[in-house]
Amino acid sequence: MAYVGLFHGRGGVAGKRPRVCGRGREVGLEHGRLRSVLLVHSREATEQADLSSGAGLASEVGRGSSSTNLLLSLVEAVKTGDEARALDMVVNLDSERQETRFYNKLLSMFGDAFSSSAAEQIYEEILRRHVPPSVQTFSILMKYYVAEGRWEKAEKTFSDIKKSGFDPNRSAFNSLISARGKSGNVDGAEKAFQELRELKIYPNNVTFNILLSVLRDHGMVKEMQNYFRLMKRFDLSPDVVTYSIIIDALGKKGYIRAAETALADMKSHGIRPNVVTYNTLMNVYAESKEWEKLEKTREDMENDGIRLNSFSYAILLAAYAKAGQLDRLEEVLVTARKGKGVLPESAYRTLLCAFASVGDVKRVEAVLGEMKTSRLIPSTKTYSAVMHALGKAGLPQAAMAVFSDMKAAKSKPDTQTFDALLHAFARSDNPAQFSKILEEMKDAGVRVSKYTRATVIASYVHSGDIKGAERELKAAIRDRKGDKLDAAVFNPLLQHYGSNGNLQKVDEILEMLDRMGIDRTNHTYNIILDAMARRGDVKGAEKVMASLSGQGIRASDVSHTTMMKLYSVVGSIGKVRKSFSRVVNPNAHTFAVLIHALGRAGDADGAKEAFFQMEARGIRRNTHTYTALVNALIRADELDEAIMAFHDLRTDETEPNEVTFTTIIIALLKKNRLEGARELARRAIEMNVQLDDDLKERLKKASRGSKG
After folding, report:
1. What are the φ and ψ backbone dihedral angles of 603, each rounded to 5 degrees?
2. pLDDT digits over 579-610, tens only?
């Protein structure tokens, strides 16, 4: 999308020319803006004054009225959060009060302090007292329905405005646009905007910002462009909220440079970015993994005198966690403490999971301790997430310690908690502990989910108890009730049968999935493909890939990598390359498969090119990629270059494994370069790399031969 068209459409930048106000008089910029805002907002401003605070309510009761004290007590009850007492006082107010304005204030005060349900009770009181509701009454109700996601209620209230003989006001239309957009009805949101225009209601910045937000949430950047231009035709200048929405939308679509241009455009028109704008841009960089620009934005924010808020810190923590920069995580935490930033629990959860994922138990304990010191008790969700991360890091006992801490804090474990704990122990060598956790889950009356079943089945498979896994699968099918099973429950057994070449059992499970109407996941297809690859069934694997495509399922990168391996075995290097081109996010393993395939095909130059491509893409080379390159060079009779690659492996902070050493030692022996082979064998011993007995015997024979 041409970004310039978004901000610099015909007619110039909004606010740079004289403008026409609501009454048709041409005025200068500042006076015009002020008068326009007054004309548009005067009625709303009057109606909304002091609605949420309760200020001015006492003046609505005549001086000397017997209800004055009751009304003051009502305001106090609302401020202290005593909803039942406050509602009871409303019922006991002077029954002769009939002013709609007064009840609108009550309506807004209860909605702000409590909920839309509390506002509804005030509305019922309005009807009971036969107070005529105004369009503002309905608009206030709609606002609270939208805030709580009660889309149907908002829609019905909008209809009630018309049934009551009123034309909806701009506030009602704003709520309707928001409700329809958030409920996924984008066309309905645009129709509401069109109806507003047909009623000659002047949309304001809030109206356009709501509509732009709706379009952003649905990735409709081109449509945003049209409404941005329309905004200028209404003589409205985009504000900081408008720009923040646009920056967010452009960033989510991957238009990073356009998002940067939007910020520059914003500043050039004298609009100062606020914390929301900077947070939006930092999030864009975090999502696109542009860490240096994220840091620069953080510096710009501080240089502009804008303090980071809790969301700023949460974005930074999530970004550094994703990048694996644990030291930076701690730095952000220290900065937050100094700046007296109050981190939300979600930020602490990010921090905990980052440390847990790398097995840093001490830091996990320290952060949990800090949360408690800050009187922020970790929720069940946080405890569960930490246990899950520790389990993935292979630390089941640490996960159990967190579980004990959770119970000590009197946080109630739920299904996700037990699932995380079971998952942690599923592949451990402690089946007794696994069974104990499962029993505790049942004793606590916690619902056993399909994911629990999948974990239990995987545990049986891991321990070699296939009969137990089959029993558990039958129990899952029998007891499923309303909890529809998915392929994850079947995959562990499917993978076991596939890896052991039991294709009859594989077919039985696939037939079971089809019979029960359970969709196959990408992981299911990966298992099937792997089974096909193990027996070299190229045609069968291609049929599976065609089936994926026919169902509109995008084959995963793992599936394409499996096909690369299969085509490599049968020597179809063209198809290997084609499969590689379909991999969306290639990693070191993908490149290792490609390099190995090219080496098998005798294309050493292609293997080297693929190897150097990794650096260009920012993918760290590992032992497997170096080993694949060494093997490719040896196949092409480029032994000296293979030895250089071997030495580069060490300087690249990567350690050779048994396969690397074996490949190059055998090549040296074949070339009668015994000293080089011995030297590498000695290095392998120093590095505790175990060479197989056959290779050791070959080295001994070569040594004896050289002496003879």
Report:
1. -100, 75
2. 999 998 899 999 999 999 999 999 999 999 99
